[in-house]
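Fig. S4 source data, part A: sequence.
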Amino acid sequence: LYYGDTIMENQTKLFQEMIDRAEAAVRKEISTWPEGTWTAEASADSDGMDLTKPVTVRGTLTIKNGELFFDYSATDPETTGMLNVHDYMTRSTTCCFTFLFLGEELLRYHNEGSTKPIHITTKPGTLVDSSPDAKIAAGVALTGCLIGEVVMSLLSQAIPEKAIAPYSRQITVNTVTIGKPGVYVTFCPSAGAGAVYGNDGYQCCATGSTLGNIGKTNIEDEMLRFPWEYIKYEFVTDNEGAGKWRGAPGIHYQVENHSTGRCMHQTGSWDGFKTSANMDKFAETAHALDAAGVP
């Protein structure tokens, strides 16, 4: 194809029009929200290095003149563990979770313009704006969830008719078999997504930073490829918690290792997660992992 000047100019105008329309639509929606300031925080048990010290993401939201102002300056300093994230990760996660509150009508049309009314402040050297040499291997999956919880808490306080409860936190990142080598990323012995105003939570989604885009793979396929047997993998009964709309039920997860070596879950302090979300002014989300004795 030959792209002459006229065609390129027309394409540029078209793309700019798409960006401008997205910005205008987002500003129009935000302008219907009440103005004010709200605060929230979410914590992990530790950074995986100092097991006695929790790490916390703290955020403030101000809504004014059809714009959103998120400020994470009060977040804890970056850590020696692998839970740090860089500034661009925080910005991306904040925008993604904000889009959840902007309605289905705009769902397919978000682009650069959608981010223009969203202003994000971070403090260099903190958990959410770490230095270039900080460890970040688990940052997106783990601290990303904390950022998402803070955003959902802030916006749920501001516009309760659009409230979203937290996703469950992941129990295990991966399973390592020693003897017959293998690494298996489970993603989903997690309970699932929290309730949304007007709707029950959705079971068996992965952690919040995936926005539900990752789910459990087929159990039979897993048992063919890896040397362990699923004894139980089913929803837990009566575990959703009180509320007008239920959360996800949680998972009863039990696996038997059939390899010649030992098999271990990398979890607990390694991933730095509490097993339930802990958000100020927000209902907690519960997990169940029977094999690990997690209530």
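Fig. S4 source data, part B ends here. The two ends are 61 Å apart (CA to CA).
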